[in-house]
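Marked as duplicate of an earlier ticket. Keeping the data here for the record.
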Amino acid sequence: MFIDTSFDFRTDSHGKDPDAHSPTLRRYHRFLWSKPLPSGRPFDLSDTEPPVYLYHHSELGRFFLSSDSVIPTYTRRLKHITALFPEEDNKAFESISYTIGGMMVFPGNRVDGKYTINVARGFNSKIADRMDLTLECIRRHYLGENSPLRDVLGRYREYFALFDDFRGYVDFFLLQDLVNDNRGKVNFHMPFDDFKPPSTPRDKAAYVAYRNRAIEFINSRNRRIDKYATTVTPAIVVRKFLPDVRT
């Protein structure tokens, strides 16, 4: 399947949230993440049961996934800073943030009526929607360590168990460009001091540094996704997109 890693998912979402309304994004997510888990067991995703975005149901369990744009540009939240840049620069950052390299899937079902991961990472001021900080929380989850997202990640422990460990999670979702070579340390987009503030840039220089690192990650992940998509065997592609059969 051809993946256009330059495609801005706002293009086909008709002014609505691309995470929910871009058919291209959902098709890309289904293709990319329908594959064997680290255990070798298949993790095929379906998109044929409205209003569920993507789901998996097998002896492994039942998992409901939703999409999330994970590289915040802060062009509105930090308007006092981003207004210092040419509008074309801000728009370029927004555009690349909505390519597949800046997108993830997380469990989308609420547990006990509490926040999902998508919501919690956005509302928690220590995370501020950043994927690098979210990934550090996930790394600590696998080690049984504390983090600002410990409770919400714990509610989805069965989901994270699918990937065995942090290395398995990183490799499955092609996040290698956000960690060091041995998958033991996250490469942060801003200086990191154990989740102490600030979690967002406080001035123009800090924003430039954050933006450059974020764009570098998206570009690197897009190249990794492109390489993966072109090496998937035709047999796997056919299996992924056969119609679901219910009995």
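See parent ticket for discussion. The mean pLDDT is 93.
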